[in-house]
What we know:
Layout: E1 3-4, E2 10-11, E3 14-15, H1 20-37, E4 47-51, H2 56-69, E5 72-77, H3 90-104, E6 109-113, H4 119-133, E7 136-141, E8 147-149, E9 156-158, E10 168-174, E11 179-185, H5 190-200, H6 203-214, E12 218-228, H7 243-266, E13 269-274, H8 289-299, H9 306-319, E14 326-328, E15 331-333, H10 341-350, H11 359-362, H12 365-375, E16 389-390
Parallel strand pairs: 4-5, 4-7, 5-6, 7-12, 12-13, 13-15
Antiparallel strand pairs: 1-16, 2-3, 8-9, 10-11, 14-15
Helix pairs in contact: 1-2, 1-3, 2-9, 5-7, 6-7, 8-10, 8-12
Amino acid sequence: MSLQVIKQRKRGFICVNAHPEGCRRNIGRQVEAIRQAVPKPFEGVKNALIIGASTGYGLASRIAAAWAFGAKTLGVFFERAPKEGSTATAGYYNTMAFHEQAREAALYAASLNGDAFSDDLKRQAAEIIRKDLAPLDLVIYSLASPRRIHPRTGQTHNAVLKPIGREFTSKTIDLNTEKVVPVTLEPAAENEIEDTVAVMGGDDWQLWMEMLASENLLACGARTVAYSYIGPEVTWPIYRDGTIGRAKLDLEKTARRLNTTFGSKLGLEAFVSVNKAVVTQASAAIPVVPLYLSVLPRVLKNNEQPIGQMRRLFVDFLAGGDQSLLVEPWRVRLDTAELSSDVQAGIARIWPVVTTENLYQQTDFTGFKRAFDNLFGFDVEGVDYSQSSETESSW
Length: 395
């Protein structure tokens, strides 16, 4: 047992520690949100694999699968365990809290902490699925990583956040100084584009689905969903038209390819869900995006967080068959409110006038900071941060 008072330590968009009790409260509230929305679990998903299950949309997906459907879940992720007085990562504590909630609800939950890109971890997952979860009704692909070692070539690929074709100049928030500053990004080289696609595109999703199919671990009519983002015009040079956008296009191509390859054989349906912008560990690192995420709540009144959007995806679409969310046979859109003309017009009015001096008046930067801190279990309502917390528990 290791009890300690934990004070937040962060540098810009990086928080180097996490608070287990704060993470536990966050998970409890997300579970309760699904319980309130789904008094009686739906049928249709008995066994679910969530790749990238410890934070953000992947974590919300795991909670929705478990409490909206009563599904058995296997979560795959890469998180740092506590060590020598240092706390674990937030994703580690999130998973610990998820397992606590699942045990209380008599729900099966298994987790694998390791490199999801590797063949070894895929083999470990297959063994667990074959023993306890076969066949899978649902596979969620929500992996976010800056780096990938390709299991076939051994090559290391590093993703970059850059525009393509020409440099991009805009403004963002320096999270260290809390100043609105100009930012200029040089265009990506061709090898950087290729590396970003290798890390963040659909290749690993394809490898997972091929492995599951070859091992006969997919149910007839199984569904698989990967997550994407389009965003507003102000972010297009760095996102939709940049290296990340190129990777997301590859993800969409993969969805279509999976439908072609496995649709007739297994009745598999593959989707890409385009979600709205939210504060995540990944989004906070993208230039321009922190400022956009601070402006957005001022004009988007229903500023859904991941669990609210996953309620719509799992309850309205997967369980209820709401076809209004399906804009193409393979693409679900959960971002229509964010990208509506009136919301984007409101952002366009605010964006040019935001300065360091009026940042707190023109935007909800206070809310952005709170949401960012909440990701790591800090500034969570109801937590007494003067009290010691157990940092070395496991699931």
